Amino acid sequence: MPDHDGDAVVSVPAAADDTGAGPRRADRLGADERRFRTYTLTVLASGIAAAVAVSLLWLPFRAGAGLWWIGPVLAVSFLLAEQLGINVDVRSGISWTISFTEIPLVIGFFVAPFEVVLAAHLLAGISTLVVRRVSGRVLYNAGAFLLEITSAFAVAGLVQRIMGSTTMTWPAALAGTLTAPLASTLLALAAVRVLRRRMRVGTALRLTGRILVVGFVNASVGLSGYLVIAGATHAWPLVLAVFLGLSALYWAYSDLLREQRDMEALSDVSLMVARSGQQAAARPASRTDDLAGGVNVSEWATIAERIKDQLSAARVVLRLRLDQTAPLRTVVAGDPLSSTTTASDDPLVRLPSSHVRHFRITEASSEVAGALLERGAQEALVVPLRSANQLLGVVEAHDRLSRWRGFGKYDVQLLGTMASHLATALDNRRLLATLRHDAYHDPLTGLLNRPGFRQVVREPVRDRTDIAVLRVDLDVFSTVSDALGYVWADRMVIAAGRRIRDALGPDVPLARLEGASFAALIVGSQGPWVHETAERLRAELSEPYPVDRLTVEANAMVGYAVPCASESPSDEGSAETVDVDTLLQRADVAVRATRGGEEVRGYVPSMGQIFLRRFQMVTQFRQAIEEGQVSVHYQPKISLPSRQVLGVEALVRWQHPEFGRLDPDEFVPAVEAAGLVGVLTGFVLEQALIRVRKWMDEGLRMSVAVNLSVRSLADRDFPGRVEAALKRFEVPPELLTFELTESGVMADPQKALPILRELHALGIVLAVDDFGTGYSSLAYLRQLPVDEVKIDKSFVLGMGTDLGDLAVVRSIVELGHSLGLTVVAEGVEEDIARDQLEAMGCDVAQGYLISRPLAEDRLEAWLQARTARSPGRHTEMVLTLLT
């Protein structure tokens, strides 16, 4: 709102807007408007009463007929002083105008009566309001004009009487002139209080002091100029020069203040966006927050209000694109818009560049003028928010309130800089929101990931007991990956995620944990209903999956866990608590229990022994090796054509003092997962080399095969340790065989292949174990520096009854020989299988028909009882199996 005589004037916001702030904000603004109306009537009535009183009690000047022109000249002088004012924004809704109205006022004390000065000032002030199109506060300003002049003449008359003068003196005129801006400032500060706007006492005192200083300078210049001209007729050029110099000083001072205010505004806006981003990061992510760059709509309304106050605009409109597929969302600060919908071809929104555009209805094209009229604005500053040629939003500022000439170049520069800051901040918030979304969501399915699931379900798990965590596993994922590749497996995972979402509904927290494993939280559940839901979910997931032109059969297993009766939500002081990780772990145990036959299982406390057993195995493994609980058994291998014993395969065994004999399939994966496979491999390798060394000392040349883990193939130091072990036991490298699986090698071939090449270069024999169950292609075999392939026992066992298995075995034998590889068949348990393999040309056989895995002492007895020793070359002995 415009001001006068160096006053601070309040701009009141509209009573409602379309920011969605709700009826509470509208009611508050409506109450403020009513309070200000009462205050306006009080100011106007007080001004009229004061003017009447002063006109009756104080009439020091009697104008002659020849001075009729004084009134019009004073009115023009006041009007020019108003128009030449220098406006500086002070705080939200408050502006300070450095004007020169004190100059005609102080001269008026000497040349015109009170009524003439009052009428001239009132006419100039109201005319300025009309020119500036500020019609909403005319009554308030009229009352302020009356109180300014009447208080000025009252103080001047009081000083004059104290001095005992019958004519106007310069001290009286100076005191009266300073009273006018002081009265206007007090009225404005009272208006700030009425409108419940915040202003610190220190700010109000500094503002009052600045206004008095400026008023004193202006009054002194005007008074000095009048006295000089009155005493020296030709001194007016000097007075004019002083006035121009003073004006230049004010303009420079106002520029400094404007720059300071602009920097403060930019800092405020940047802090608002930064703080709102921090608050958004602290609260649970919502779709609106994510798409709005971490800032919700109400926070953008606060930012729009700050921009409006800084520009002294009647209205600021932010149009934000919260989603690339959605229309612009409108946030308004100030006067409400009649319509917040904006067509895609709106000329004010459809901007070709990132620069600020200044539109005036008097200068615009018909299309732009129509858009301004639709907004109820006479002029507008419009700037798009862009990032990498992407439109993030648009900022519009309508109708400058505090300057009669409208928006100027400083406003254009400020809005352009603010828009640049906003675009950068919005883009950064969107980037952070994207990173936050990606951190808690699975990139393949768009569902929550494990950390996101923990984040979302932490509160309901903490506060409620009627909950259940479901764990769903598809057991076909690895098979599809091996047979069709990971692209097809990923398609199945996506389809499974959609089925679970459709079955449970959109509001149920759902996550993909890993592979084809999912987790969901059901709230408000009871035991039987949870089981029925799990059964229904498993049935839907087990339906065939049409993937492109294929239909893949699948099977699903579901485990679920609910808080036990003795457990309570995890509040402080609870005896027994349950958390998300505990429920997930229990649901995982229930899923593993389904492998026993049932495909849907609920967790029961006895299942927890599985994890306890596994934990004990891992923690006790090193001690078990030291105490001799872990040993190495050996299974012989023979040459089919000659029936000679070529070597053995070293197999680890663990006789646990509490659990008894442990199956390697149970403890080896646990040991490997715990990172102790290096200890296990080192132990087996050392025992195997000791056994080979003993045979060599006895004159027997037999090789030993040791199984390698995937982790060993990723250890760059492993070949060096193997070489050192061979030298320490003085075992030729060709008597050591490392067996590895295809899937283990191809899991990370970039790391595995260099290790294999180093081992092969040492002379160690490399064999592919379980051939036919992994990648099983000529392309993969040709990449590996291997010497042997071992046919998986599942094919050998079914060879006698399944023609398909027989064909697979024959193909592997032919493939291996075509590549110059030795072919080993494991799982030979019947004579017919041995004979068929021999007829196919298979090189080596291994299985229960020959021998089970034997401890070291029993192996020696087996060799003594079932083989005959005969002299071989180089004084070594070879063993021939007795038929």
Automatic annotation (TrEMBL):
SMART domains: EAL, GAF, GGDEF. Pfam families: EAL, GAF, GGDEF. The chain crosses the membrane at residues 39-59, 66-86, 106-131, 138-160, 172-195, 207-229. Residues 465-605 form the GGDEF domain. The keyword Transmembrane helix applies. Signal peptide: none annotated. PANTHER family: CYCLIC DI-GMP PHOSPHODIESTERASE PDEF (PTHR33121), OXYGEN SENSOR PROTEIN DOSP (PTHR33121:SF71). This is Bifunctional diguanylate cyclase/phosphodiesterase. It comes from Amycolatopsis pigmentata.
